[in-house]
Amino acid sequence: MLDKNGIAKRIAREVKDGMYVNLGIGIPTLVANYIPAGIHVTLQSENGILGMGPFPVEGEEDADFINAGKQTVTLLPGSSIFDSATSFGMIRAQKVDLTILGAMEVSEQGDIASWKIPGKMVKGMGGAMDLVASAKNIIVAMQHVNKAGESKLLKQCTLPLTGVKCIKRIVTEMAVLDVTPQGFKLLELAPGVSVEQVKNATAGRLIAEGNIPEMKID
After folding, report:
1. Which class for 87: exposed (0-12), middle (13-18), buried (19 or more C-beta within 10 A)?
2. Distances, alpha carbon 24 to alpha carbons 21, 81, 92, 139, 194, in Å
């Protein structure tokens, strides 16, 4: 199975030349480190960065340059910094081609729950609700199961929703799946993972047809 960097590497292959891409908190922030050579994209961070680069090397961090997850980042030539109101103006005006988000749960209809577990402290809902309502395309980077081994790909989300019927593709440590009207369609398997393992880890409807290829992450 893939680790978090492996998930990020696979998602980086979804990024196309010329895209404006928003990276959410968690695994998605790692995608900045794996943009394929020759692909020019503009990475946006909702706290007010356009033109974000990969994480800095140790010893070259600048505490003034941080992403939405409060991690230090680099800025590429031509980048700009602005207030969050301007940032969300870009998002709400649908200037973002692709949003990559983490999630606690995704339903087989494409609903996403990503911001709150009832009874636990939460800093706030962040910008995910704006992003899932406005982005042209949304990919989720997440673990297939929770710490208790329970599926996070469900028939119906049990946690408060961030967005409804908005997720198109999911990449986990086990597989790449698309959300279709018939349920989760299995597209690719992580190295060493079987179709049966994915079936056992998926509580929602799973469609696994034909010979499922192995993920390409390098």
Report:
1. buried
2. 10, 17, 16, 10, 29
- How many residues belong to the chain? 218
Of the candidates 159, 166, 95, the one whose C-alpha atom is nearest the C-alpha of residue 128 is 166
Residue 118 has pLDDT above 80, yes or no: no
Q: What is the mean pLDDT of residues 82-88?
A: 93
pTM (global) more than 0.70? yes
Residues carrying an active site annotation: 46
Q: What is the 3-state secondary structure (H, E, C) of the chain?
A: CCCHHHHHHHHHCCCCCCCEEEECCCHHHHHHHHCCCCCCCEEEECCCEEEECCCCCCCCCCCCCECCCCCECCEEEEEEECCHHHHHHHHHCCCCCEEEECCCEEECCCCEECCCCCCCCCCCCCCHHHHHHHCCCEEEECCCECCCCCECEECCCCCCCCECCCCCEEECCCEEEEEECCEEEEEEECCCCCHHHHHHHCCCCEECCCCCCECCCC
Sign of CA dihedral 70, 72, 78, 81: positive
> Which residues fall within 8 angstroms of residue 37, CB to CB, at 6 or more apart?
none
Average pLDDT taken over every residue of the chain: 93
